[in-house]
């Protein structure tokens, strides 16, 4: 799809790679982030991933599928980092070192909506859709700053796992800090669902013909 952004030069078009993020991208970034927050996505764990010409393109000259997994994993890891206040530093460090209990990506499905080409920078954000004592589900979406739309949606299932025993873990049964994490995820779900519901009422989806 064609870019909605207009740049004065080739260098300006890739200025998202500069240390200051590029002044030309500032309004594009602001608009995409504001929309994501209004849709119920978590601002604290968002990431921005700049498209690189040499690494991210495939022979068809658009961003390859595998690159999206890399982008989404960056967002997922920031989400896992957000567990630290509830787990405490010791249990959080254990999680990073694959000890005790921690999250594991069980599966995901992806819906590619539009192709992305260099130059472009992507905002990646997640919102939770379901929470259970042993797992939670979410949607991680990828916004193109140049196109100002969501270009891919990932539906993801995260399972909590007892690394030492090699079995799934129930946060409520373990209790303590893990129960606190479960309650925090439930609260986040309620907040994000409320925001998302408001957005959906104000922006009803158009009916599209099925391929």
Automatic annotation (TrEMBL):
Gene3D superfamilies cross-referenced by the UniProt entry:
Hotdog Thioesterase (3.10.129.10)
Which residues fall in a compositionally biased region of kind Polar residues? 11-20
Q: Which GO terms describe its molecular function?
A: fatty acyl-CoA hydrolase activity
InterPro entries recorded? 4-hydroxybenzoyl-CoA_TE, HotDog_dom_sf
UniProt region (Disordered), positions on chain: 1-22
Q: Tell me any Pfam family this protein matches.
A: 4HBT_2
Q: Which domain of life is it from?
A: Eukaryota
Q: Which PANTHER family match?
A: 4-HYDROXYBENZOYL-COA THIOESTERASE FAMILY MEMBER (PTHR31793), THIOESTERASE DOMAIN-CONTAINING PROTEIN (PTHR31793:SF11)
* Name this protein carries in UniProt: Thioesterase domain-containing protein
């Amino acid at each position: 799809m064609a870019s909605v952004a207009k740049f004065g030069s080739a260098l300006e078009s890739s200025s998202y790679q500069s240390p200051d993020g590029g002044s030309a991208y500032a309004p594009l970034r602001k608009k995409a982030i504001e929309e994501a927050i209004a849709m119920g996505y978590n601002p604290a764990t968002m990431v921005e991933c700049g498209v690189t010409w040499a690494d991210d393109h495939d022979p068809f000259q658009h961003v390859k599928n595998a690159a999206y997994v890399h982008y989404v994993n960056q967002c997922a890891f920031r989400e896992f980092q957000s567990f630290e206040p509830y787990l405490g530093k010791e249990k959080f460090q254990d999680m990073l070192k694959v000890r005790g209990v921690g999250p594991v990506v069980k599966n995901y499905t992806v819906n590619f909506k539009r192709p992305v080409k260099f130059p472009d920078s992507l905002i990646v954000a997640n919102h939770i859709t379901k929470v259970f004592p042993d797992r939670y589900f979410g949607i991680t979406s990828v916004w193109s700053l140049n196109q100002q739309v969501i270009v891919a949606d990932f539906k993801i299932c995260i399972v909590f796992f007892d690394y030492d025993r090699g079995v799934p873990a129930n946060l409520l049964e373990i209790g303590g800090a893990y129960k606190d994490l479960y309650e925090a995820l439930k609260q986040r779900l309620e907040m994000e669902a409320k925001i998302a519901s408001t957005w959906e009422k104000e922006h009803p989806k158009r009916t599209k013909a099925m391929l």
